[in-house]
Input
Amino acid sequence: MSEHDLTTPQTEESCGATDTGFQVSRRQFLFGTGAAITLLSMPGWMRGRGMPARVYAQTAEFERKRIASVSELKTGDTVAFNYPWDHPNAANFLIKLGKPAGGGVGPENDIVAFNSFCTHQGGPLAGKFQADPGVAGPCPLHWTTFDLTRHGMVVSGHATLGLPQITLEVDGDDIYATGVMGLIFGYYDNSVDPTA
Ligand code: FES
Output
């Protein structure tokens, strides 16, 4: 186990937070090997409803895969890729939002990536990734919208789980996918290769 701090640009002070983190027991996904604990900052409006300042989510780590080049991305650009498996449900989009985001990489911390299937009933979100206002959606089936600046949390709609975020790292000019934070729709375990 390792611990990553992927906090959003929003600071605890700016949120008015005074409480400390806790473990999200309901989200103990069946990730098997290669799991890591990821620290998330919660926005002020959620903590005003009883949520703590920070929560922890598990990330399944996989062999890193090169996705794109930092220098070739402009705000609003998207890059489709499969990760961690060559399987239809493991279809993802990287997007340069043009504003800092939770888990964002690059000079402006604005490059993020997410799975492209709605966590409600698997509605397709391809073509629904929008740099402005920084959301994926609305889902064409039941209108769920996910906030790409805040780790894919649900903004509105039927889904109750956030969009799985693909964790990224930058090495020189290269952007790599390194793991998946959240259970991919249709899987019971991210670590089990559905193509095997
Ligand atoms: S499948 Fe996306 S909101 Fe229902």
